[in-house]
Amino acid sequence: MPCRGECPQIRTFRIGGIWRIRIDCWLMDRIGIRPNATVGKMKNFVVNLDRQPEKYERFLKRNEGCGIAFERFAAVDGLKLTNEEVMAMGIVAPGSRFAPGAVGGTASMSLIWKLVAEQDEPALVFEDDCTIRHDINAHLARLLPSLGDWDMLVLGCNTDSVLDLELAPGMKSIMVFRPPRPDDVSDAAFQRSTSQVAAFRLNCCFGPGGYVLSPAGARRMYPYWLPMDNRLVTIEALGNRALPTMGADMMANSIYPFVKAYACFAPLVVPRNDSATSTTQSHIASAARTWG
Fold first, then answer.
1. pTM to 2 decimals?
2. Exposure of 173 by Cβ count < 10 A (0-12 exposed, 13-18 middle, 19+ buried)?
3. What are the structural domain ranges in the chain?
4. pLDDT tens, 6-30?
5. Which of 103, 110, 130, 113 shows the shortest CA–CA distance to 247?
6. CATH fold of the domain at 39-290
7. Distance CA 226, CA 107 (A)
8. Distance between CA 67 and CA 84 in Å, rounded?
9. What is the pLDDT of residues 270-280, one digit of tens each?
């Protein structure tokens, strides 16, 4: 809300910066972005394993036209985590079964979310296999202020599964994508796309390739998201099938309807989602082990 009832559209300043302070306060409270910052300069994390530097190099080359100064975040390697370390982190409920890669990905997410909450600034988070539209900054600069009080804006998700959005109260859109897995040709066309982008309330998606997280969202969602367990989640978009949770994205699907989560459509990010090179392996039941 505007400070002391003042209108946020005011653009004139009094001597001493009184009006500027009031406008700054409204902007920070309302959208979580400081007025002297641009989306292109927003803190960002590109999650990448130390043992896969080539994936980060490919990411940088593929997305060099996006106008973002990317920052690498050294991902937690789940293959190196001991059971004691995982339990101490509090990211997995004792007795739950998850692949080490999925646990490492969740540990990375946990660290990033804590940083966002502590620094009290929104941040962009990208997977290192994603492709980003060249006009992402312009769209985010328009979309984020329009959301008001928001927790998370998912920029794009795996295209080999479903996306469930709320178009209006009581009205949903449940969709699938083609092609189910992008390639170099479709990625290049996607990056150059200038199609319209809107933000809708999110009910369900799988494998977010990128998202924007607000400090309020990090604080509000963290205790509901973690520790992960193998809860059954009913996915309406898949014929009301009840699926066990095998990774962080399914945990998210259990809470999206109860928080202020949004998704972009058309997407601004598309992950490659190559199961042959996936390090999380949450889709492989035999890769899971029992923790705790």
1. 0.86
2. middle
3. 39-290
4. 333 333 334 344 333 333 333 344 4
5. 103
6. Spore Coat Polysaccharide Biosynthesis Protein SpsA; Chain A (3.90.550)
7. 10
8. 41
9. 999 876 666 66
